[in-house]
Design goal:
By secondary structure, the protein is of the alpha/beta class. It folds into two domains: 17-155, NAD(P)-binding Rossmann-like Domain (Rossmann fold, 3-Layer(aba) Sandwich), CATH 3.40.50.720; 159-321, L-2-Hydroxyisocaproate Dehydrogenase, Chain A, domain 2 (Alpha-Beta Complex). It has eight helices and 16 strands.
């Protein structure tokens, strides 16, 4: 089956296979979170570091008694990814102090140019899920390198950023985070946009929130919360060197939505083609996700300032993409 001709069937496979490219802290944590959540029955890890991959394979398998049964394998041979239903790409260099986004993008794009053609050959019907940063740029590069339909190539985007936003809102209002609905859109990075106009808590628009015994969300609070969301990764990296738990859980949730054919709404990064006038760039907006990949981009109401900020974010990402020659 040519990757340019047919999409995978919408029905979920009985024993889906997830391949994770990169067995570093993020890749291994995605595998761990996926095992805990029972996302897939067959999970494979691929990394050029054979010893590290073998160690992660053993460690995960030694705990399989305590979760749903799954087959977990690891290898330094990319052939282990053959026939995967979803390939998660986490491999890449970490951003160093003083390194620009374009420098990081160039380094990680070089890695993609090796990985993606191999994946296309080994798993031509797979969905590609990018986690490597800068994720919006890497998603666009992977789309062009693979030739896959746009619905089958997307990035983790602002799923994690939106989770951070909801956590901070919930803590400020003293409500359960599960009852807060709010999105970060745009770039997974400094130009990301908080969609306050559509945010709710318990079904109540945040602009109308006035619950007895609960704090209100003032303009200053919104500004502080958004700044905390944007700076969260920097704080975590300063403290322990990398973020891994939350992105591991976020990615496992994305995999769950896809492999379980849920039609869940998540703000993944995918190709926009006319969304609010934005074209030919990968950005995060709330999307319907199922076994076919990105089924639809939802027309979330945007305040004029939010729409303008989203367009600025698009130009920010597009500038980096152009610097890579795409």
């Amino acid at each position: 089956m040519s990757p340019n001709v047919a999409d995978p069937k919408a029905s979920a496979p009985r024993n889906p296979k997830v391949a994770i490219v990169g067995a570093g802290s993020v890749g291994a944590t995605i595998a761990y979170a996926s095992v805990i959540r029972g996302v897939a029955k067959h999970i494979v890890l691929y990394d050029v570091d054979a010893a590290k991959t073998r160690a992660e394979e053993l460690d995960l398998n030694h705990g399989i008694q305590f979760v749903e049964m799954a087959r977990i394998e690891g290898s330094s041979d990319v052939a282990i990814c053959a026939g995967a239903d979803v390939v998660v790409v986490t491999a890449g260099a970490k951003q160093k102090p003083g390194q620009s986004r374009i420098d990081l993008a160039q380094a990680n794009c070089a890695i993609l140019k090796t990985i993606v053609p191999a994946i296309v050959e080994l798993a031509p019907g797979a969905i590609l899920l990018l986690v490597t940063n800068p994720v919006d740029v890497m998603t666009y590069a992977a789309l062009k390198l693979s030739g896959f339909p746009p619905r089958r190539v997307f990035g983790s985007g602002t799923v994690l950023d939106s989770s951070r936003l909801r956590f901070l809102i919930a803590r400020r209002l003293d409500v359960a985070v599960q009852n807060v609905h709010a999105y970060i859109a745009g770039e997974h990075g400094d130009s990301e946009v908080a969609l306050w106009g559509s945010a709710t808590a318990g079904g109540v628009p945040l602009e109308d929130w006035d619950a007895p015994g609960r704090a209100k969300l003032r303009a200053r609070d919104r500004t502080e919360i958004h700044a905390s969301v944007k700076n969260a990764a920097y704080e975590i990296i300063r403290g322990k060197g990398a973020t891994n738990y939350a992105i591991g859980l976020a990615t496992a949730r994305i995999l769950e939505a896809v492999l379980h054919d849920e039609n869940s709404v998540l703000p993944v990064s995918s190709l926009l083609d006319g969304y609010r006038g934005i074209r030919d760039v990968c950005l995060s907006v709330p999307c319907v996700l199922n076994r076919r990949g990105v089924e639809a981009h939802l027309p979330v109401p945007l305040a004029p300032a939010e729409e303008e900020a989203l367009k600025v974010s698009a130009e920010t990402v597009r500038g980096v993409v152009r610097g890579l020659g795409f």
